Fold these 2 entries.
Entry 1:
Amino acid sequence: MENSGLYKQNPDFPHHRAKNKDFSFGQLFLYYQDKEERRSAARPSGPLNRETRAENFKKAACRAGEKIQKKQKRKKLMRQKARLAQEQAAQEGAYYRRTSHCRRISRKGKKVITAAVIAAAVCLVFLYAEKRSYHSYKVLNTSEQEDVVSTQYVDMDGDILRYSPDGVSVVDNSMNTIWNETYTMQNPIADVNGSRAVVADSEGTLLYICDKKGVTGTVTTSYAIVKVRIASNGMVAVILDNDDNTWINFYNPDGSLVAENLTKIDDPGYPMDVAVSDNGVMMVTFQYVDGSKTTSYVAFYNYGDVGQNEDDRKWLYL
């Protein structure tokens, strides 16, 4: 019983060592040898002979070794399964990330393709509208005119302003007359702004202010009319010429005089054109000769509330 102390120190010696990878087969053999000697000594028939005990020791040690190897194989197999599961999970994660990325790219690609198709469709429609040619037409309305050459037509807020040396009228799209007014002019000119219009005799002295309902005012000027302009609220600006001097007059929609401005060639110059706004501001372009050079500039006349602070209503030069 030389090795009995080994068993006393650790009764579960083989199981304890089986858990350790540094298992010593010699130590296991000694353990089973000691165990078998104690079992042999306790037999009722007496201890076994030496050869039998040695054979039993070997068999017991082999069985223990086989058990331990099986456990190690099971652990190794479990580790392999765990590693395979981890690799499979990693592959599935990579596949999911790849497919998700592909789906995102696919969605972006669909958006890009859709935008490109819409842009191409818009371009095709634009090119078709720009390049197409018409080979036929449809007559909607007809109207017989006695003096087509001298009659002029201007759009007036959806209706048509028709004027000639004999008179002025407004007709609708079906050429039905809304109103008309007769007069006598040599060279009628017109200016339309929205639903307001003015018809004047160029180089003459007569002008008519009107809207879509009829004539709102008439004016007979003292000098020849050069230019005429109307604002959308019916205010009218007129350039007059009497050879020596020029005048710029401003009228209400009813034809009443608001202001008149005398201009001379040397100061402030000859008025070339005029424009008028709804808030009472009149813009005039002048041209004058300064020595050997011809100069032009723009002057603004304010006949609204702001212009009341100025003596001659002129408040800005450009």
Entry 2:
Amino acid sequence: MAEKLDIDKIEVVDEIIITKEPVKDTKTEQVPVMHEELIIEMRPIAHDSSASLYHNNSIKLEKNILKPVENKTNIRIYLKREEIEVSRTPYVKEKIVVKKKPITETRTVTEEIINRRSQRFTNLISIFNNIR
């Protein structure tokens, strides 16, 4: 009696999971921002012709600001400044393409089998014949 190898193939399904997950990253950018600063200067009043021209054009301003302070007076001045506003907008950066392709490869299968040699039978026959 002898053995021979019977080689069959079976199909096995492997599952592969592709996971998309967000990756946090820090992005730093330099942004110029503008703001106004208040500068207060104290100047002596000059009584020349250019000063009188200034006084004639802004009489109302002079009456309110340049008159001697008798009571506590508040002057409101608005200063502008820029603030940074950050918003995030999602966009498609890249797309993922998933493909399957069959690949055929050759594998070597090595198994031990039992095989009886006819030489042994021949030796047994010759011994059996010698006994007769």
